[in-house]
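Reader question, answered in our methods column.
A reader sent in the components of a multi-part assembly and asked whether the whole thing could be modeled at once rather than chain by chain. We filled in our standard form and ran it. Here is what they sent:
COMPLEX SIZE: two components
ENTRIES:
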Amino acid sequence: MFDFEALSFHGDGPTYGANAPTGTTIFRGLGNTAVDDVVFLHEAHHAGLNDSTAWGTALHILARLPEPARRNYADYLDACRVLHESYATYASVSLAETRHPDVEQLFDSYATYRPLYEAFVSLADWAGGPHRRYLLAETIATVCMQTTILDALVEADFDLPIHQVRRGWTPDGRLAILTRHAEALLNDACAMADAGLASELAHLDVDGNDLDVAVDERFDEAWDRWQAVVHASLARSFDRVGSPTLDVNGHQEPAARAVSAAMRLEPKLGLSVQRLDYVPTDDGERAGAVISQVSLKLVAEQYEARWADVSLGDLCDLVAETKAIQGEAALIVDVRRGDHLDRSYRWNHADRPTAEPIVSVRFIADDAETDSPVMWFRRLTNPGELEDLIALTSLSLSIGLVGASTLVDLDFQAKWFDAFSLLDRLVTHIDVEIERILPHWASQDAPIRATYVDVDDTTRPWRGIVVLGDDKDRLWLLIADNSFTNLAMNQIHASLSDVPTSTQELEAWSTVLRHTVTHILATETELSLSALQADR
Amino acid sequence: MIDIDDVLEATGAAGTTLNRDALARLWEAVGNHESWARDEFIEAVQAICSPIWDGDGPPPPDQLAFRFGRWHIDVAETGVKVALLTAIASTLIVAGIDTDLSSAVVAGILPAALTIRRKEISAGDRSITLEIRATEAFRTGWATPETLYESLHDDTKRTLNRHDFADFVARLRELGLVDGDDDWIRLQPPDDRD
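And here is the structure of the entire assembly that came back:
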């Protein structure tokens, strides 16, 4: 029935990323960490800029509305494309440069971004040291996007073609004004901001060249005020040419009005006012806001998925044949939300899973007729089937790989609890935003232990975070890339006071980890924290 | 209209293929030395000169993407030489008058509103001077700003604000390009450059 093939990753080639209001997608290349970091940071800055500004909110809304409003989306995106790309390139390369000094070499391959980068360098250079330059770049991007477009869109019922918006009111038009008059506008703004904080930042060297000192959180409030002064100064300049600017975070009330109005046109807008109102207040929340929007693609094209109609006995044989790693095989039982499976694979309409958690054993095999790879799911419809499977298997290791997104369904957990406990080990795959899990981790008797694990993959360097708590038989696992896991670990440390590492404890999990990580990378189509995000 | 071959020869461009670096050198020869003007010129070229992409190709219209690759133009392709000249002239105009419009947008306006000619060209110092004036119909009042706007290509009108266009026309008028006599306005004469 099945024509098995060795598992391999698809889409080998240069890393690239893409951002749309509905999420960020990253296809990883062949292991150039500097490029991977830049692409991740680049897309994260797109997402952050859209989430924190009026024009970005407009994009969020227009992308989700039906026609005729929807047809304006691409034009509104085009009206901020130069700003977005320049800022995201500058910010990502600047940050990556701290770890990869020769990162600018990437422009040899990603050539179209060099002029965009250089354009923003010439603007940011009006500030002093590296931290000021980054903050100025962020402020320029924000000011340019913080227009009064949302109220105009509401007034027009969102049918406001871009030609009805003056160019000086668009982000790219405002950037052009800034660029053409950079010396006059930016010099003044930075001088004013520096003067206002001269006493508070006097103990930093004059340009803030010591980045480690400059980014110390003790100075966060001072730098916030520095940015606020620059923002206000540039806003006044735009006011003088008739292009009004909202305050920092001044888009929140217009955003709430716009979302309410948009929901009258599209009740299933998929945007909440809370999300648009949400302003991260510390580094942990900022990190969480970024990674919750990122999806790391494992395959260029989603696998076709089918339900496998095989007996439990045959299933045991298939698993033993396909899951061997270094001569060992393990039975891995997946527990995933059905709607997440529906989004992750290509299903025939009649086969599409519904939202509830699904327990299955899955494996990839070529379709005998088409020779194309198919992800087969042998569904276990009740706990008794799982118990029978565990009794039947000859394998010495059984693992339950439970999506954290399924833990919210308490009835399901209660129904399957006894059967799951028959499995040798339980691994909770972190597929939801970390802030959803933090309260659970914070309530443990002993501090959780969070440890990086490097994934030794021959083509791409993935990395995991393993979290251990009170339950010695359960492990929490996040698999992503370096940038993603760095931010995730930052979020964990920023949110919980004491998070030691524990490599010693992990030794007992090494075989389980090897099997589960391999299984995840081979059978998932993407790595993200979006399993509970219905609009993704 | 001037012959772009003269421009290419004067600026030392060899062959028919021009990548971004070659275009930057071209701009350094004919335009001003502001980096933003060079960037706008290249942006205008990308917009109107049928760029040929390698790598992952152009950014998709509905996404912000970080993609591998680059583009170049081939002036041997039909229409590219004229488009390249239009990009040069557009950027010279944007750099020479106070307008909110980008070079790429002005490129869409040029044929309707302005006539361009080469005044002089020097292979020795690799510089050219362009002169512009309003089109005959515009200067004689046969075409009003409103009719000019309506005469623009739909793609241009789709993104060009009517009031921004009116402001642009007003600037041309202030410069004497509309109400003046037969004089041409010289853009970026070589003697004035750094």
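What stands out: Chain B is about 45% helix and 15% strand. The CA atoms of residues 6 and 134 of chain B lie 24 Å apart.
Send us your own complexes using the same form.
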